[in-house]
Each structure stands twice: as C-alpha cells, then as structure tokens.
Amino acid sequence: MKGWTASDIPDQTGRTAVVTGANSGLGLITARELARRGAQVVLACRSETRGAEAAERIQAQAPGAYVRVAPLDLADLASIRAFAAGHKGDRLDLLINNAGVMALPHGRTADGFETQFGINHLGHFALTGLLLPKLLAAGPGARVVTVSSFMHLLGTVDPRDLNMERKYRRWAAYARSKSANLLFTHELAHRLRAAGAHLVAAAAHPGYAATNLMSVAPKMEGHRAKQRFMEIGNRYFAQSPEQGALPTLYAATGPDVRQDDFFGPPLQGLWHGSPGRSARAKWTLSDTAGRGLWAASERLTGVRYEALAS
C-alpha cells in the first residue's frame, strides 16, 4: 500500500456508505472520496444545516456524486435509534465510525455518560449494533471502520470507572475513548469470525491532521491563546485532512484488509505519511478487556448484537 492515494480507491458503484461526522474535516473528505468513486453516501451529522452545506460542497467538487443528509447525534441514544430506524429499508455496505470529540471539559451526554467516552465509543457501539443486520446482509466486501487515534497509546480502559468519576482529566479521557475504539474493533472482529460472517471490522487513525478537532475545546472555554496555538500547530506541523483521511479510506476499500486491522501513518512517522498497518498498544488486543468493555457497553446502551449471539 506504499504511496496509496485516493485515486487508488476501487469503483464503489452500487455500494452504500454511512459516514458519521461527515460535515467537516476527515469525515467530509472520506464521504467525498467514496462518493466520487460511485458510492451512495449518507452524511450522518448532528447539524442538518452543516450537513446540507457539506453535501453541497461534495456535489460541487465531485459532480454527479450521490449524497444525502440524515440527522445523528451520537451524544443521544434516542437520536441514534431514530437514525438506525430511518435506515431500515436501505442497503448498507460501509459504516465509517468517524465522528468524535477531543479533550473537552467535563460534561455529560443526554444519557448521562462522560462526553468523550459517550460519543467516541458508546455512541458508535450503539450505532453499529443497530445497523448490524443491514451490514451482515450486504455480503462480501461489507466493512465497519472505526476511527481511533495514535493517542490511544496513552490510555487504557478502566472497567471500574468508565465515566471517569474518580478524577476527570480531559486528555486521559480522550485517550481512553480511543483505546475503547480499538477494543471494540477487536471484540467485534472476534465475534464476526466466530459467526462466519463476511463483514470485516477494522480501524484507522489519521496521524496528526489539520482539522478543527483540537480547537473545539479552547473555543468552548474562550481560551483564544490556546485556540491560536492549536491553529498554528495545524498550519506548520499537521498533514492535510486529505492525507489524514487516507488510512480510513484504505481500511474501507483496500484490497487486503483483514479482521481487526489497524491502519495509519507508518510506525516511524505516527503523525505523517501514507497509510500502512500501524503501531498498536497490546492492551487493545486483549480478549478479556474486549469482552469486559463489550458487556459494559451493552449494559449502558441497551443495544444487543443479537445477530452475532452465540
């Protein structure tokens, strides 16, 4: 996959993809490139207005692209259930769990979960489970791709304190949520293998990409100096969002993607470079931790993966 670019994406005609957080950043690029190659893409966005603006941008940049917007708030289980119910009659080949938040001040989702864990992991766990029958029905080539981060290396998941009740530290909470993304992918891949399913579960990370993700928290808190610092980092040290989206696009469309693969910039770069199989913390490959997180996620969200039940 050395030197792989968006121009190498195979034809996606006849396939349908859902991309969460597709109104900006990596999600917008991912949705655009899939649509450019012929996929019908659902932009799953919290703001329908911003989603509609993103759809217009994609159609302007990729004439003939088919995209539509559907409201989805990953911080609200009722919204997730409504989104999944609205997709019942449609084919689904690709689910790109891209949306996320980073290093926010302490907060709660509509259902009382710590915001970063609730959106980055639990929201996508619930969404994937509710859309699973459609993904399984799509047959060979169907994939679930969950976007993690190289920051997962800095945080393990503590099953005794998933919501960080003891002591909240924003970056630790973010790292934990990204570790949870990989543990989820690991356990989902295990269950898909056991069921003999064609669906592949893989993960990706963008390295350090120039998006607005890092500046959201300083903006929320009114810290203009921190916001400016993040913007300078994006300008001088980060790679473009187009480059950052490549690992996700490879995980979604590459020819040799296996269960539980993790793609990102190569080991020697971590932050920059063409997609390759990426460095990964050993604890995200723990069967015990994966099963524990899965059980807790089912309990907290009320979503059961009945199609994979043994």
UniProtKB/TrEMBL annotation:
Instruction: Cite the Pfam families for this sequence.
Output: adh_short (PF00106)
Membrane-spanning segments: none
Q: Which domain of life is it from?
A: Bacteria
Q: Which key words are in the record?
A: Oxidoreductase
Q: Which InterPro entries match?
A: NAD(P)-bd_dom_sf, SDR_fam
One GO term in the molecular function aspect is: oxidoreductase activity
Return the PANTHER family for the record: PHOSPHATIDYLINOSITOL-GLYCAN BIOSYNTHESIS CLASS F PROTEIN, PHOSPHATIDYLINOSITOL-GLYCAN BIOSYNTHESIS CLASS F PROTEIN-RELATED
Q: Which family does it belong to?
A: Belongs to the short-chain dehydrogenases/reductases (SDR) family.
UniProt-recorded name of the protein: Retinol dehydrogenase 12
Q: Which organism is it from?
A: Streptomyces malaysiensis
